[in-house]
């Protein structure tokens, strides 16, 4: 049996472990078990990203794939709190709406609505019925368990095409090595911290423009700020949530909904890595990392793809 070592147990690594195990690989999942951006309390599954109304390649396919994967895990009795209740994206004026209308693909189900129930200042609302949210931590945990992969806790000190040496000196050998480590412990790329405020109440479906309000497994979330890029995970995480960012986040939240009577119960911060890295490097080590804020939108779909690509080269 072919043996695959996956370094990193976030959404990319756990998804790859799941698909590899179901494709006949014996899988070892090496995960430090800390500082994972994929443990976000509520990941927004929204194919219309940013404030331009553009839909990137694979976004709609990725959205559908992730929700199908969630439903498949639930059929296997794994609990993955989520809501495919749609995402509402308000726009401030007619000009923005026309720009979005020009950018939206014909195959994206959507409708425009009046901004009923929103604070004053919005022109209209784009309703994306296939969107929603998922508990990132629950999805990652369910994928890892359902894969049946051997889980090893630790950090890789050195990685080759045939295995890894851990910080404690242990050696793991494999026929293929796939790096899905994200920002934690990674050098190079752009590391950017983002924070969510944990709320005791939530809207019935996600709202997003600038920041987003979303239900979560418990209460809801308001996020996310994205701080200035840093050169390492540690440097990005050290920024925390500056008062300027907190003020910005609260003002964005108040523009989306009436937050009077809503209590803040805590804060979650994760560090994301970009740009995307996919496929083998010159040494034969495979990579799926740098998904940035699109981890749950594209991660599972790309993980299946990289597993298929690895299999075709064996």
Describe the structure.
- By secondary structure, this protein is of the alpha+beta class.
- The protein has a single domain, classed as FAD/NAD(P)-binding domain (3-Layer(bba) Sandwich).
- The chain contains seven helices and 20 strands.
Strand and helix map with partners:
Blueprint: E1 3-7, H1 11-21, E2 26-31, E3 43-45, H2 59-75, E4 82-83, E5 87-91, H3 94-103, E6 111-113, E7 124-128, E8 132-134, H4 136-147, E9 150-153, E10 156-160, E11 163-166, E12 171-173, E13 176-179, E14 190-199, E15 207-209, E16 211-215, E17 220-226, H5 233-238, H6 243-256, E18 264-274, E19 277-280, E20 286-289, H7 295-312
Parallel strand pairs: 1-2, 1-13, 2-9, 13-20
Antiparallel strand pairs: 3-8, 4-8, 5-7, 6-7, 10-11, 11-12, 14-17, 14-18, 15-16, 16-17, 19-20
Helix pairs in contact: 1-4, 1-7, 2-7
Instruction: List low-confidence stretches.
Output: none
Q: Give the CATH architecture.
A: 3-Layer(bba) Sandwich
The portion of residues forming beta strands comes to: 25-35%
Note the main sheet. 6 strands, mixed
Radius of gyration (Å): 20 Å
CATH homology-level superfamily: FAD/NAD(P)-binding domain
Helix and strand composition category: alpha+beta
Mean pLDDT across the residues is 95
